[in-house]
Amino acid sequence: MIILGFCAYVFDSAACLIIDGELIAASQEERFNRKKNTGDFPKESIEFCLKKAGITIEDVDHVAFYWEPFLGLKERVLQIFKGLPHTLKFWNSHSSKWLSMVFAENELKKNFKGEHRFTFHNINHHISHAASTFLVSPYEKANVIVMDGSGEIVSTSFGYASDREIELPHQINFPESMGYVYVSLTQYLGFKPDSDEYKVMALASMGQESKYYDLFKEVINLEKDGHYSINLDFFNYQLGIREPWVSKKFIKEFGPIRKASSPEELTQRHFDIAWALQKRLEDVAIHIANFLYEQNPCENLVISGGCALNCVMNEKILQNTPYQNVWTNSAPHDAGTCIGAAMYVHNKVLDRPRTFQYKTSSWGAEYSDIEIEEVIKANNYAYQSLKEEELFTKAAQVLSNGAIIGWFQGRTEFGPRALGNRSILADPRTLEMKEKINARIKHREEFRPFAPAILEEYSQEYFKINRKIPFMTSVVEANKEKLDQMQAVIHFDKTSRVQTVDELVNPKFHKLIKAFYIITNTPLLLNTSFNDNGEPIVNSPEDALKSFSKTNLDYLFIGNFLIEKKQRV
After folding, report:
1. Chain centroid to CA 522: how far?
2. What is the crossing angle of helices 178-188 and 268-295, to 10°?
3. Domain containing 250: what range?
């Protein structure tokens, strides 16, 4: 049984392929077309998935699409009429996307010619999110939270899952949306909405409780049965107004907007507003999680939707609820819904048993040493060919001497974070390294942290955790006695967004960190995505060489080859 899943037309278009219940391939379209967070039809991602399996569209039995375009349409139209004339802007910005979703099957057939024997399935957006976590999780039973901007009409849903059944009886509809509130504040604080929300999460660690938190309690109210309500007088997003996303009332209470075009210096006011926003998001998530536990005591909670990328929130749920396990995969945002929709068709629609667990993010493109060497030669780079053990030894040596390297190995990660296959790596021991990477390569704001990738077997020694965190989905506290060994990856509040590296799941990355540990007695590396600021993570050898040439990386370890800076022929 071959199932193709895809998502498109909003953000983070992606495609995946499942054969007999096992995930074979998955990729975001941005990796191919090089447009970050693109919502374009994922033609190249679908081509990649089919090629990976050695099949064509004619071999596909079922296609799963992550949206039911007519679901909630009546409510959307009524909301537009109630808000006229302002909401015309909302309709104008969304109508073309809606039409594209209506004709998604036609677009697939137009781009992939042949005998189309597949059955096409439109799967509810929040069900696709929920399935992308629960159906591939290690749990037989779990409570479920989905929180994002909005799907067809729902912005937050929560419920229960068991075996192949997913029920989301509790729903909060757009325009009351924690996702849109967070996006609105991203724009208010001078960052790019629907893109830079992680910057606000980082900024929040520099704030403290203030009058703004009390104000947010008035803006976002916790209701009975796990629900929340939003005072929409503080916002413009529901009207389709994007300049600004917040209303005059919000500006009156919280102060002037920080302009993105000529941003003012960040002040304590901005830090405290970010802190208050983050805290209220956590309040809402904990409120929902505790309600679910009261209704269905279960040790497992799975979370999905764009808000599940908020690593601080994820950890706060675990700390402040009775759950033993809080889990999400490497792509809880819209990209992951292609997997969720496809798995839902396999497990629920077709009534097939669950056999697959999501243990790695390595589902994208990979290239042989022959292919890599051809690209290196075509771009006139001098290079060294290394045996595999030499690869790890050499990389560890230059890292311990202060070099910053590009690390291009195996399959591209699925999701927004580099997890050891398309990474920029550095020595984590000194604060100067963080400043060096920002100045020379990433060109990021000073307040944004870098993340540690640590050997799983040493994770409890360095951080206050007792579990695996393979996908950088939680922010945890560092152990004080180890701070000197990882100054470049510790945030202002002594926390880190940790990735634990399993020897069986990613053996190459594990060998590299272990080689570094042998030299330095430090079992972790600074790990950030292999890209320049504002670009998608590199995918192909061509991407890697292009990024290497325009940044100040010292070395590129690509496959079993080593390229040094300024060694072009």
Report:
1. 28
2. 170
3. 172-327
Q: Distances in Å between the alpha carbon of 422 and those of 220, 412, 416?
A: 39, 6, 11
What residues contact residue 237 under an 8 Å CB cut-off, 6+ apart? 175, 180, 183, 184, 245
Does 362 fall in a domain? no
* Residue 481 neighbours by CB under 8 Å, 6+ apart: none
What CATH number does residue 99 fall under?
3.30.420.40
User: Is residue 354 in a domain?
Assistant: no
- How many residues are given for the chain? 569
Q: What is the gyration radius of the CA atoms in the chain, in angstroms?
A: 23
**CA dist., res. 259 & res. 335, Å (int):** 30
For residues 131 and 191, membership in a common domain is answered with no
The pLDDT, as a whole number, for residue 567 is: 55
| 49/79 same-domain check | yes
The C-alpha angle with vertex 473 and arms to 403 and 174, in degrees rounded to 5, equals: 130
Domain boundary at 349, 379, 411, which?
349
Residues of the chain scoring pLDDT < 50: 568-569
Asked if residues 538 and 422 have their Cβ atoms less than 8 Å apart, the reply is: yes
What pLDDT is attached to residue 568? Answer: 47
- pLDDT given for residue 96 in this prediction: 84
Sign of the torsion formed by the C-alpha atoms of 321, 127, 137 and 315: negative
CB 449 within 8 Å of CB 496: yes
309 vs 13, 156, 158, 195, 330, CA distance in Å? 16, 15, 17, 12, 9
Q: What is the largest CA-CA distance in the chain?
A: 68
Contact 305, 150 (CB under 8 A): no
Residue with tokens 């704001």: 445
Q: 3-state class of 422 per DSSP?
A: strand
Q: What is the pTM of this model?
A: 0.96
Residue found under tokens 């096409």 = 120
pLDDT confidence of residue 569: 41
**Three-class DSSP category at 63:** strand
Q: Give domain status of residue 80, yes or no.
A: yes
Q: Which of 529, 543, 412 is nearest to 14 (CA)?
A: 412
Domain count across the chain: 3
Q: How is residue 530 annotated by DSSP?
A: S
Q: Which is it for the CA torsion 237, 242, 248, 254, positive or negative?
A: positive
- What is residue 77's predicted lDDT score, i.e. its pLDDT? 81
- Counts of helices then strands in the chain (DSSP H, E): 19, 22
Looking at 314, 349, 384, the residue that finishes a domain is: 349
Q: Same domain for 391 and 288?
A: no
Q: Does any domain span residue 149?
A: no
| 66 three-state secondary structure | coil
CA–CA distances in Å: residue 259 to residues 243, 263, 386? 11, 5, 50
Instruction: Kindly state whether residues 238 and 343 are assigned to the same domain.
Output: no
Residues 228 and 204 grouped into a single domain = yes
CA dist 239 and 229 (Å) reads: 17
One domain for residues 374 and 343: no
What is the arrangement of strands in the sheet containing 325-327, beginning at the earlier edge strand?
165-173, 154-162, 141-147, 300-304, 325-327
d(CA 119, CA 270): 51
Residues 221 and 271 reside in one and the same domain: yes
CATH assignment at residue 410: 3.90.870.20
